[in-house]
Amino acid sequence: MDIAALKAELDGEVPLEENPRILQQKSRDFYWYSPVLKRQLDAVAADLVATPRSVDELHAALGSAWRNDVPVTVRGAGTGNYGQAMPLAGGLVIDVSALDRVIEIGEGRVVAEPGAILAKIDEATRASGQELRLSPSTYHTASIGGFVAGGSGGVGSIRWGGLRDAGNIIRLRLAALDGSIPSVVDLTGDDIAKASHAYGTTGVITEVEMPLAPAYAWVDLLATFPTLEGAVRYGETLAAADGLLLKNVAVVDASVAGYFKRHAPYLPAGEAVAIVVAAPFAVDDVARLAARAGGTVTLRSDQLDEATRARLPAAFELSWNHTTLRALRVDPAITYLQVLYPQPDICGKVLRIAEIFGDEAPTHLEFVRFDGAVGCFGLPLIRYTTEARLDEIVAIHEDNGCPIFNPHRYTLEEGGMKETDAVQLAFKRRADPKGLLNPGKMIAWDNPDFDYGKPYLFPTLAR
Amino acid sequence: MDIAALKAELDGEVPLEENPRILQQKSRDFYWYSPVLKRQLDAVAADLVATPRSVDELHAALGSAWRNDVPVTVRGAGTGNYGQAMPLAGGLVIDVSALDRVIEIGEGRVVAEPGAILAKIDEATRASGQELRLSPSTYHTASIGGFVAGGSGGVGSIRWGGLRDAGNIIRLRLAALDGSIPSVVDLTGDDIAKASHAYGTTGVITEVEMPLAPAYAWVDLLATFPTLEGAVRYGETLAAADGLLLKNVAVVDASVAGYFKRHAPYLPAGEAVAIVVAAPFAVDDVARLAARAGGTVTLRSDQLDEATRARLPAAFELSWNHTTLRALRVDPAITYLQVLYPQPDICGKVLRIAEIFGDEAPTHLEFVRFDGAVGCFGLPLIRYTTEARLDEIVAIHEDNGCPIFNPHRYTLEEGGMKETDAVQLAFKRRADPKGLLNPGKMIAWDNPDFDYGKPYLFPTLAR
């Protein structure tokens, strides 16, 4: 790597930054959600940060990296929490936050640059009565490129499934790191999987085309239940209700609800809670079904006065990783896991796991559509003690038929299916023949014979 | 029944008709789809038809029927095919087709009178970018009141489930037959089931409030497959694709496709066909998945020239009961059944049934969402021979784990779950204490101890 040569080439062409504090800041994401990643990645820092103001400038930075063998890690808003935007081998971080234009809005689709913030895209599309289908709970701060490169679904998945599902990404434009002038390719259909959820290891996303859903004046609803089982069964009922237009359905146990400080007046102690975001014309049915399931509707945002509504965080900001964040703010020792509770008998699996761990792993569920059926992801809080115990908790989940997508790993494979993604690997050989894009994140590239029985450690990282 | 007194009361107040040909015409629906119903119901006729021009006039007709003990059968557009709008006991038919106003259009909802034709409602709502979620294939001729009173789902059910699902009917306003001035009640939530799919036996629908979905420029697509299995598996794949916005997914075997005369250039002989209606931004994925499943896309309406597109029936008019209609036009001896192919292994059940019957019952499937999962209804064509054989075909389906909703029965119970609907029965006791509303359609009212092992025969009908 010849970072000095790269710097000389780009100086005056592309905004560069080498202030150590900026380098550190732009080399980090929310990796500190995980005590494991915090230990492993705390020293990670880029040598240089480039903030291109145009796709041409981004191409220039990639060309220079190619010529000078400089590793490139692309960063959106840095709201991920798997260390996916952290430059394990140093080198150049390309911050795409200035590439934030909404280029085109059509019927059911929007074209944007990768740095566009999700909420800003929706501000632009709402004039046409449309909004993005899917977003993480970091909707107000996350970029569309980062979401596509590192996310999997979130708010909206109860209706539309995940980013991996056909139709949820229409097109990605990708710049390769394959020469002084990068190749540019538009990926559609099956080819989208070459670059979605690849942490930028297979190319740099320079434009996205996403589907849009109708925008409604969504209503937040909290329903509390005397038992976790009651709340879970209610969540399942809503998730199976094909005629109710919902945007999110989360369920948390009583001890998790205790971390929702600003919602405390609506959350009786000891009660499990369902957190629902529904279309205005569905909310009466959502409330009725809560009562029938033995719950009590304690909050409906359409029945709050304006001042109260303005003061409360939106319900989606009690869900997905914002649930974890709210707990972390109160108790920094808390971390979390990502669990799949498979069909059939989702509720039985949830209750069994809840009973095994008790207060060590309070229940947090997110209901989604998964391959045309009701799916249920868990993001349990974990009262962290040691890495060994964390691994044990993972193993106990898996022994009970509940796969873990481990958020304490920085590689694509260990956070995912624990196997080589042959499509991404083959594509990386063409798009990044020198292996300069986000080194250390794709085990299959570094070590095709890796044994997934143990954690992967990228060579540059001290243990 | 004192029909003369009723006539004297209403004369000059409500438009009346007693021309025998009109009486016969207004006493019929598409019951002749069934050779069984054709035999049983051919002689059915009202004594008088009233066509109220306002809800007040309708109320006046109901009041007079109450005073004079005249049976009342309410009729929308008469596009049903279970004899549900046929006055088995004679008396008064109330034709609501003049009550066709679209009263109010809001975000995600429309309020209309019962006689409003579905396509006309959509003409009114389309200005706001909205349309009805669900419709039968008789979209251009069916009334919303008739659909709610006698239908169950149809086009749109691949996305929204059925009319029975929470959220797919927002409110029904009902006039009872309980006095000289009818009681009026608005049904919402669980109470909607008291009057939806009740054939007008529990009250007269005078206003409906329905949810609206976004309206898109839907694209029709035909994909042909060398085998029925290929087409069925493709249909299942589409039905499970949460990220693809679809409006209808039907699959027919090669011999059924032969009845689609105007689409013949797009239907190679011997090939099974998937008939898909998709949003414009989903159609590329629909086509790609067809190719991957071994199919050939032979028609995409977005790639036809204007003249060709104008000449062809819409794809939804190849689906649901329009499939049956097209076969009947070619071969009047054909009839059909309504089958549920339950999860799991939908495809296995479909193929087993197809093999048992061969050309006696060519396969026609409609994929839907059913309780939050992929569902599959069959509307197989039946090459009719005798009633005994038809009953045998029904029994063989049921012996193979595939329940039949028998379209050769005119009662609610026999066409449905073959059991008393306690909610509707209890409500009818209040809303129609004299049992004057659509007599003969609710077995539970006439004969609570009926044995569902044999067909029901209403006493006024000659065998």
Automatic annotation (TrEMBL), chains A, B:
Keywords: FAD, Flavoprotein. It holds the Pfam family FAD_binding_4. It comes from the Bacteria. The keyword Cytoplasm does not apply. GO terms for biological process: lactate catabolic process. Residues 41-215 form the FAD-binding PCMH-type domain. GO terms for molecular function: D-lactate dehydrogenase (cytochrome) activity; D-lactate dehydrogenase (NAD+) activity; FAD binding. InterPro entries: FAD-bd_PCMH (IPR016166), FAD-bd_PCMH-like_sf (IPR036318), FAD-bd_PCMH_sub2 (IPR016169), FAD-linked_Oxase-like_C (IPR016164), Oxid_FAD_bind_N (IPR006094). The keyword Hydrolase does not apply. This is FAD-binding oxidoreductase. The lineage of its organism: Bacteria, Pseudomonadati, Pseudomonadota, Alphaproteobacteria, Hyphomicrobiales.
